[in-house]
Amino acid sequence: MFFLPEKPVLVLAIMLMPFSSLGQASQPVSVMSTVTLMIPQAIDLSVTAGNTIEFDFTSDLKTLTTGIEKLNAVMLSYRSNVPWFLTISAATAHFTGGDPDVPMPATIVQFRRNGTSAYTSVSTEPASLSGSSTARNPRGSSTIGIDYRVVPGFDYPSANDYSIGITYTVSSI
Questions:
Q1: What is the arrangement of strands in the sheet containing 85-90, beginning at the earlier edge strand?
Q2: Percentage of the chain with pLDDT > 70?
Q3: Is the pTM of this model over 0.85?
């Protein structure tokens, strides 16, 4: 009978050993999960200033031949997560308004990217404002200023309703 009390104590000590060793881990335990993303091709362009640009030649007749220049007449903001390029074109070959028998061509409007030197006449064919289909700009966002110069000359009749749409296109292809 002397041995009976010792056996239950011994069994209890053996049962406690595994639990006490689990509570004293010497290394941290880590688990991992995965986060996945699906990002589409994103390209955006907006006119932030210069939705309507007015050229008034009525106060000085010599400006009909020397032209009127407006620096940063249009401000375009772009955002793109792909390489991109920007073009400009006239919506039509001629202005609306005035005398339909003497149409004013889009080419009297000249443009350049602000900070560059040479003006180019606008036409219905897209022309580069920044980059090209073979030399794209890097991803990012910023603002581009466009200068305009308009030289109508004396070839078109007096009218207050001449207008033309100008299209800006940002593309990655």
A1: 127-130, 85-90, 166-171
A2: 86
A3: no
